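Worked example 3 (structure in, sequence out).
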């Protein structure tokens, strides 16, 4: 088997636009793992929704959440590795978001901390189906007084504002945070030493798998690091323009079973 590990992003890559996946994907994963391959997911999502998806796909072993900040065991849910944002920088994020008047969320231990519910909260809730804790104007004080070190911060606004704000925040927090995006209305912030590529490298080391034996599949800017790292980096047809330019292969879109196509073509080496 040439490729022993296949890692896929979740939203807009493995999942279709209705947050589902074709039966052909389940069949391809089952055949690939039965042949000795390892298939897993690396996502910016929280650990709990990730684990739900992994279990529905009958995956075993380890998976990656929060853009690489957490590596967890699928069967037990145990956190194997976690890298958080320091409290000092978390406070800085809160204050900057307040200055900008932008909605934000902080993540820790399966909790989503917010000031108050807004239409953005409801939009995000549909995506992750997770509970929210409301702190009102006292959220920054809570972060200060509790010493909270979140695993991730998320800023949400209309795409035009996010498009303008993203490069500014990347410059402001350079050397302190990794600031990127997975959707046009979201800015994600995690520890500066973390990205999906680093997490895949850690996972591969744990499994004793060489870089050349890995396929990574993604669609958005937060997938760049793992697509660059992999022996074969793949972008779905609906993916980001830059990601397509650096990928070694462009597969069918998320709505056309792209991940199943990659498993069959490269993992199982079938003639398609």
């Amino acid at each position: 088997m040439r490729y022993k590990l296949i890692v896929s992003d979740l939203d807009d890559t493995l999942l279709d636009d209705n947050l589902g996946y074709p039966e052909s994907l389940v069949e391809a994963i089952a055949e690939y793992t039965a042949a000795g391959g390892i298939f897993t997911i690396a996502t910016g999502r929280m650990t709990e929704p990730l684990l739900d998806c992994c279990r529905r796909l009958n995956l075993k072993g380890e998976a990656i959440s929060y853009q690489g900040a957490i590596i967890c065991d699928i069967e037990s849910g145990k956190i194997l590795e976690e890298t958080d944002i320091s409290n000092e920088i978390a406070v800085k994020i809160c204050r900057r978001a307040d200055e900008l008047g932008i909605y934000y969320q902080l993540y820790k231990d399966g909790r989503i901390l917010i000031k108050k519910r807004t239409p953005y909260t409801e939009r995000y809730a549909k995506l992750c189906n997770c509970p929210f804790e409301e702190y009102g104007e006292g959220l920054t004080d809570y972060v200060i007084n509790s010493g909270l070190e979140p695993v991730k911060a998320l800023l949400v606004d209309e795409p035009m504002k996010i498009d303008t704000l993203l490069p500014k925040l990347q410059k402001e927090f350079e050397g302190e945070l990794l600031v990127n995006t997975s959707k046009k209305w979201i800015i994600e912030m995690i520890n500066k030493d973390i990205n999906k590529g680093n997490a895949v490298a850690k996972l591969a080391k744990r499994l004793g798998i060489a870089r050349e034996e890995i396929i990574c599949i993604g669609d958005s800017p937060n997938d760049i690091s793992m697509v660059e790292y992999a022996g074969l980096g793949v972008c779905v047809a609906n993916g980001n323009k830059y990601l397509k330019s650096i990928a070694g292969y462009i597969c069918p879109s998320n709505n056309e079973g792209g991940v199943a196509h990659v498993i069959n073509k490269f993992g199982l080496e079938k003639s398609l």
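Notes: The first strand starts at residue 5 and ends at 8. Residues 87-100 form the longest helix (14 residues).
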